[in-house]
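Intended use. Records like the one below are meant for learning the mapping from a protein sequence to its folded structure. Do not use them to infer anything beyond what is encoded.
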Amino acid sequence: MLQLNITDILTGTSDTLITLIKISIAIIATVIAVQVINRALVIYFKFASGKLKVDETTYTVVRRIIIVTIYVIGGIVVISLIPSLPNLMLGMAAGAGIAAIVIGFAAQKVLSNVFSGISIAIFRPFRVGDVVEMEGEYGTVEDITLRHTVIRTWQNKRQIIPNSRISEETIINWTIGDL
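Structure written out for the chain above:
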């Protein structure tokens, strides 16, 4: 026979409500943390760029990595707050490992561009504003992202070049002289 006890229903409802409140707080805290840290990084860059000559490309890459890391940590916290999910974490971890392998093979070119973009940001063979030559084309570097680099040619054409191609080609930087 099925008997419903009102205290069991209220206890279950209050547990669910408390869980939803905790998840909401974690999401709001993550978004606020991203906003505060992003603003702090922007202010720091404005301050440091004049004194330390911080490169805009390096700053952008570091800022994006920090923001993504905060979002990932926030997502992990939210997942850990859902009562039924901590028990499934081992299965999810195994599934995530398999998914990472599949996605890695599928997104090999994109990942190559991202790692090349990180390499460009770290080793800085050129910077925004530099005049470069690649494959016989001359132009000014307008933007460097993790995936691609934008070069404005002397014919006023905008070339969007994947970073993996840039890392495989010979580039002449006419702006940076011998140090």
